[in-house]
Amino acid sequence: MPRRATEERVFERTSGKVKMRMEAGALFDGQDFVPQPLPYGPKPRLVMIHITT
Description:
- Helix content is about 20%, strand content about 35%.
- By secondary structure, the chain is α+β, with helices and mostly antiparallel strands.
- The protein has one domain (about 10-50).
- The strands form two sheets. The chain has a two-stranded antiparallel ribbon with strand order 1-2.
- A hairpin with a 2-residue loop joins strand 1 (about 10-15) and strand 2.
- The longest helix has 11 residues, at about 40-50.
- The protein is globular.
- The two termini are about 15 Å apart.
């Protein structure tokens, strides 16, 4: 995950033969889909570590 806020909708990292790709999604507000930013910072990173362990 990015460490800082970014305008990008895709985040990719490569480490040796392993690649990770995250894409920002959208939420439906009752009328239309609203694009959401990529999560960033320490809290979402800790949540991702917890989920993957």
